[in-house]
Amino acid sequence: MFGRREGERVKDAPIVRHMLPFLMPTRTESAVYFEQRLDVTDALAWLKTRSSGENPPTFYHVFLLALARTLALRPQLNRFVVGRRLYQRRKLEISFVVKKAFNDRATMTAVKVVFDPHDTLESAGARIAAQIGVGRGEAKTATEKEMGIVTRLPRLILQGSMRLQRVLDYFNLWPAAAIEGDPMYASAFVANLGSVGLDSAYHHLFEYGTCPLFVTLGKIEEENRLASDGSVEARKVVSLKYSFDERIADGFYCARSLELIRDFVENPAKLEEAPEL
């Protein structure tokens, strides 16, 4: 009945793709899980050669852009299900958590970066840095302000409000302004667990919002691997774990897309130039 501002309904998908939201109504029961272990030895060495300048790229920048570019090149991954219908997202939006300060008492907040399909490492780095600055700033984000208001409500009223939100979202009546600033309405959500010394972990998918993909990055570790000449070589390796709503695309399409992410992460020089779309 009503369209969605952030997405266009997909009507030409295979018939089974239209049936899946009725067979599996929730993201929890639709989740599939993948793990990748990427050799980032050469990528880290390359990043050291780019360490000068005002905003030098980091490994996190490389991964976020690799994911964004893969979403641009593999558009079926940039879909979502709401109201038991399949939609193509109009933007490339990746959310992640920012810690206000590096201490135990510091709070965390989520921010959302809107990428351009033609972003390079330089332009993407500027977008990421800007949103990290917003997240770490003293002023509260729009999401923090909203949660600060609603959590003051009595429990029964808050519970009823959340049920009403889901009904409105189901029928595409939830305001576009609320969706635009909400990190849970995104192409993907990324958690950099390695930044706090943790390994990657499989994360649940949220029923709230429309995010169909959750990725965690673990800490970079040394791993012995066989070289081409048969010798054993210590390499820098990172583990990535993906939780994925299989209603938006089949496993084969997703697996091939992950190999594209691998190629970009292990060869970040490819991200210096804009892609041909």
Fill in the keyword field for this structure.
277 residues, 10 strands, alpha+beta, globular, 9 helices, three-stranded antiparallel β-sheet, single chain, seven-stranded mixed β-sheet, Chloramphenicol Acetyltransferase
How would you describe this protein?
The structure is a single chain. The chain is an alpha+beta fold and 277 residues long. It has a single domain, classed as 2-Layer Sandwich (Chloramphenicol Acetyltransferase). 35% of the residues lie in helices and 24% in strands. The protein is built from nine helices and ten strands. Strands 2, 5, 6, 7, 8, 9 and 10 form a seven-stranded mixed β-sheet that branches. β3 (79-82) and β4 form a beta hairpin. α4 crosses α5 and α4 packs antiparallel against α9 (251-266). It starts with 6 loop residues before the first strand and ends in an 11-residue tail after the last helix. The model has no long low-confidence stretch (mean pLDDT 93).
Short characterization:
The protein contains nine helices and ten strands. By secondary structure, the protein is α+β, with helices and mostly antiparallel strands. It has a single domain, classed as 2-Layer Sandwich (Chloramphenicol Acetyltransferase).
Mean pLDDT over the residues: 93
Structural domains: how many: 1
Question: Counting H and I runs of at least 4 residues, what is the number of helices?
Answer: 9
Distance between the termini: 32 Å
Relative helix content:
25-40%
- Estimated radius of gyration: 20 Å
Given helix and strand content, the structural type is: alpha+beta
CATH arch. level architecture: 2-Layer Sandwich
Q: Could you say what the CATH topology is called?
A: Chloramphenicol Acetyltransferase
How many strands appear in the DSSP assignment?
A: 10
Biggest sheet overview: 7 strands, mixed
Shape: globular
Quaternary structure: single chain
Elements, N to C (H/E): EHHEHHEEEEHHHHEEEEH
CATH class membership: Alpha Beta
Bin the strand percentage.
Answer: 15-25%
Q: Could you state the CATH homologous superfamily? A: Chloramphenicol acetyltransferase-like domain
> What low-confidence regions span 5 or more consecutive residues with pLDDT below 50?
none
